[in-house]
TrEMBL record:
Domain Radical SAM core stretches: 72-288
Residues the record lists as binding [4Fe-4S] cluster 2: 86, 90, 93
Organism: Enterovirga rhinocerotis
Family the entry assigns: Belongs to the radical SAM superfamily. Lipoyl synthase family.
Class of this enzyme: transferase
EC number: 2.8.1.8
Binding site for [4Fe-4S] cluster 1: 60, 65, 71, 299
Gene: lipA
Compartment(s) of residence: Cytoplasm
Protein name: Lipoyl synthase
Region spans: Disordered: 10-29
Length: 324
């Protein structure tokens, strides 16, 4: 009986205890250009069934992604490993915060099984921040990558990792597992870190991405930000320069959408023509691939984007060979 009561009390825990006493923020009405189809198709239901049968967590659900209907219709899901509770408390994020449970040692096999059942040619694996673990969960990432490789050798793997802040040697463990794409999001411009991403350090994140390329130049690197948090245009352009200095290949830019009244408010809905302008600037600065639209998210169209990245690299190598 005590166990049942304990479980019930856990279920009633606030999703974001650190935000519970903050004043409510206004929730702005979404403009016409931010509209998505509600999920519910038979293929969406099949993806949902496989995810639930394997007792997996997806960032699609936990973060309230607006593209879940479109992606799950295509049997594309972004798996969130190491539980559903994050040790950070970012002002923009809807993932539960608190002290996480112990790692599920069977999770790598469960993820690999779901990837095989969904028949994924490209999979995205992300995680909560696990500052409670000595390696930040690096070895667990490596085990998941290895399990997928063993069961689905033809599947390409994209990871979206935490920053492994103060976790010496963690990045090297993940890179050694050789994901095809290493993504780590800056999320916002440096002037907004104190209020938006207080547990992180902007230049540490930039250096993390640079270090991936130094360790293994064959791995594609990727990063993303949200706009509409009060940033200035010139700050976004400077962030692009910082990422290109770190040799990052792929940039995503999307509109921030406020999950609840306790989260950071939307300061502005950026119109589509400004996203197009950001895309033009990013390509001019040398990114190999750019996705900048109001509904762009890190793993949206990830498989198609990876194919474009690989084709771009092959074309560049062919051009360099012909010149020599």
């Amino acid at each position: 009986m005590a166990l049942v009561l304990d479980l019930l009390s856990q279920d009633r825990r606030p999703r974001h205890p650190e935000k519970a006493h903050r004043p409510d923020q206004p929730v702005a009405r979404k403009p016409d250009w931010i509209r998505v189809k509600a999920p519910g198709s038979p293929r969406w239901a099949e993806t949902n069934r496989i995810v639930k049968a394997n007792k997996l967590v997806t960032v699609c659900e936990e973060a309230g992604c607006p593209n879940i209907g479109e992606c799950w219709e295509k049997k594309h899901a972004t798996f969130m490993i190491m539980g559903d509770t994050c040790t950070r408390a970012c002002a923009f994020c809807n993932v539960r915060t608190g002290m996480p449970d112990a790692l599920d040692q069977d999770e790598p096999a469960k993820v690999a099984d779901a990837v095989a059942k969904l028949g994924l040619s490209h999979v995205v694996i992300t995680s909560v921040d696990r500052d409670d673990l000595k390696d930040g969960g690096a070895l667990h990432f490596a085990r998941v990558i290895g399990a997928i490789r063993a069961q689905s050798p033809g599947t390409t793997i994209e990871i979206l990792t935490p920053d492994f802040l103060r976790k010496k040697g963690a990045l090297e463990v993940v890179v050694e597992a050789k994901p095809d794409v290493f993504n780590h999001n800056l999320e916002t411009v440096p002037s907004k870190y104190l209020t938006v991403r207080p547990g992180a350090r902007y230049f540490h994140s930039v250096r993390l991405l640079q270090r991936v390329k130094e360790l293994d130049p064959s791995i594609f690197t990727k990063s993303g930000i949200m706009v509409g948090l009060g940033e200035e245009r010139n700050e976004v352009l400077q962030l692009m320069d910082d990422l290109r200095s770190a040799d990052v290949d792929f940039l995503t830019i999307g509109q921030y959408l406020q999950p609840t009244r306790k989260h950071h408010p939307v300061i502005r809905f950026v119109p589509p023509d400004e996203f197009k302008s950001f895309e033009t600037s990013a390509y001019a600065k040398g990114f190999h691939l750019v996705s900048a639209t109001p509904l762009t998210r890190s793993s949206h169209h990830a498989g198609e984007d990876f194919a474009r990245l690989r084709a771009k690299r092959e074309a560049d190598l062919a051009a360099a060979t012909s010149r020599s």
